[in-house]
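Hey team,

Filing this mostly as a record. A colleague (T.K.) asked me to run one chain through the structure pipeline before their review meeting, and I want the input and output archived in the tracker in case anyone asks later how it was produced. No errors, nothing strange. Just documentation.

Input sequence:
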Amino acid sequence: PLDKCSEQGIVVFNTPGANANAVKELVLAGLLLSSRKIVAGIEWAKTLKGNGDAVGKMVEKGKSKFAGPEIKGKTLGVIGLGAIGALVANAAIALGMDVVGYDPFLSVDGALQLSRHITHVTNLDEIFAESDYITVHVPLTPDTKNIICAENIAKMKDGVRILNYSRAILLTLLQAFRAEKSALMLQTLLQMICLALTALLLCLTLELQLPKVKITVLKWLQKRLRTILKTEI
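Output structure:
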């Protein structure tokens, strides 16, 4: 609470947008991860160890399994054009994507920060219908809590990729995946979670002396996700 911080001489600042560029870069990484089967490719490459001179031929034969769509020329729907959403939208334009943005509270100053090539729409259904990729950048409110749900996913293209680097709408998203049985979307989500767990495990191992049981649990989660990616999708 602010009053407790003040009593102890701790100054609290509101710094909106301070990490906007960092999140933008994570979203761009997510776009590529969702398209290029990067995590699956890494896991497959590990299985080639010990094959010596045969690796080259094995790569040529197997690499087509990890092909994916290019993002250039695809449509990105950006829900929320604040500090982060605007950076994502502009970066996507620079990468050759078509960008459709939605933000009912877009200010004049905010609009001036957007590329003129971005199409601003006033109805979320247009985002859902037109987008190959959708990225969400809105605060968690009663109006946005269920913004990605089974009903709205039904309005989307088959194979749409959804990136959520916002707030706690993820549970609703998982329920929607289950309802729609979208293997591609679920696989994309699991790949990103698996990669995040791998990075987290590496950081914790290098930086912290955690109890062995916690490291074991993280490794089990990582192994389980990899198994799901290989056998259940």
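Quick notes for T.K.: The longest helix spans residues 183-207. Strands lie at 75-79, 98-102, 119-121, 133-136, 161-164.
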